[in-house]
Design brief:
mainly alpha
């Protein structure tokens, strides 16, 4: 069981990173072009945050079923911070006026911060990002 959770957690990182890159491009483009928020921005933001949440849930399962080693402390901290930044900034970007240019900027910053923390968290346990 622990090997299945570990492989799922390890493989899902590619989807999380891909969704993050897509969301970053989308929010950055929306910010640069003064795009009006619509259902696409909500779907893309929610997809990234949802995949990140699922990744955290799998990570909790991995931590509970496999031996703990000290490098995991940094990994866990960075991943929790990534999930928090995604929830706070991307979630806040989806509320408010749909013509607010700051919403796309906040979404882009939230996704970028989450991606930086994710990459740092992956590297903290000695794994390659790709």
């Amino acid at each position: 069981m622990s090997e299945i959770l570990f492989q799922a957690h390890s493989g899902l990182r590619y989807l999380v990173l891909l969704a993050g890159i897509i969301a970053l491009i989308f929010f950055g483009f929306g910010w640069a072009t003064n795009r009006v928020r619509d259902s696409a921005s909500r779907i893309i933001g929610s997809a990234f945050v949802g995949l990140l949440d699922f990744q955290v849930l799998l990570g909790i399962g991995v931590v509970l079923t496999r031996p703990f080693y000290p490098a995991l402390s940094g990994h866990i901290l960075m991943m929790v911070l990534a999930a928090m930044s995604a929830h706070l900034l991307v979630g806040k970007a989806m509320r408010g006026s749909p013509t607010d240019k700051r919403a796309f900027a906040m979404g882009a910053v939230g996704v970028l911060l989450a991606l930086i923390l994710i990459v740092g968290g992956i590297m903290s346990i000695g794994r390659s990002v790709v």
